[in-house]
Write a structure and sequence with these properties.
CATH topology: Hypothetical protein af1432
Structural class: mainly alpha
Strand order of the largest sheet: 1-2
Number of domains: 1
Order of helices and strands: HEEHHHHHHHH
Mean pLDDT: 92
Largest sheet: 2 strands, antiparallel
Strand content: under 5%
Low-confidence stretches: none
Shape: globular
CATH architecture: Orthogonal Bundle
CATH class: Mainly Alpha
Radius of gyration: 17 Å
């Protein structure tokens, strides 16, 4: 087998481990926690569904590429609720994971995938901003729109969650309005602290 193909297969087998990473969010059915690979698929489907909310000229194919690679780092770093107390540590683990995982690929392809991951993290291009919005909205749809009774995280206030989500969602007014409605409903249902 040619070296490039062998490295690509090794990368794909390593990426298969994403199926084993359990996230904090539950499935919409409430029957179990979501896997990261399931999250990736569902957020990509959500992106295709909500593509008309992206700014004119946004390359949705590129958004999908960003979403496809951005959570691969969870193979090593896991899924975390990130706040001021753990931000630096989580980012360090994710960066180390990106270095290791993308180095498995042939050099040029590894550099391309790492560049996609970095673009998502920087959140500066139209495509990265829309990808980040989709990633921020997905757990809200899964948990709050489903009407689950069980909380996903330790008790959190609606104000904290609004602050966490606003920067990523507010550039997309209809989606941000919908997200705020989900938060308001969660407070009324007693699922979020006021």
């Amino acid at each position: 087998m040619p070296d490039a193909l062998e490295r690509q297969v090794a990368f794909l087998l390593e990426a298969d481990k994403l199926k084993e990473v359990v996230r904090l969010n539950q499935l919409a059915s409430g029957t179990r926690r979501e896997g990261t690979a399931e999250h990736c698929w569902h957020v990509i489907l959500q992106t295709l569904t909500f593509a008309d909310h992206a700014p004119d000229g946004t390359d949705i194919h590129h958004v999908i590429k960003l979403l496809t690679v951005h959570d691969l780092v969870e193979i090593d770093a896991g899924d975390h609720w990130v706040d001021d107390t753990n931000y630096a540590a989580v980012k360090a683990r994710e960066t180390a994971a990106a270095e290791r995982l993308f180095a498995l690929l042939p050099e040029a392809q590894g550099a391309e995938f790492k560049a996609l991951w970095l673009e998502f993290e920087a959140n500066e291009t139209d495509e990265a901003r829309f990808a980040n919005a989709m990633d921020a909205l997905h757990p809200m749809v899964l948990v709050f729109a489903s009407g689950l009774e069980d909380p996903t995280h330790a008790p959190i206030s609606v104000a904290d969650l609004r602050e966490t989500k606003e920067a990523r969602l507010s550039p997309f007014p209809q989606l941000w309005e919908y997200a705020q409605g989900l938060l308001d409903q969660a407070v009324k249902a007693g699922r979020l602290l006021p």
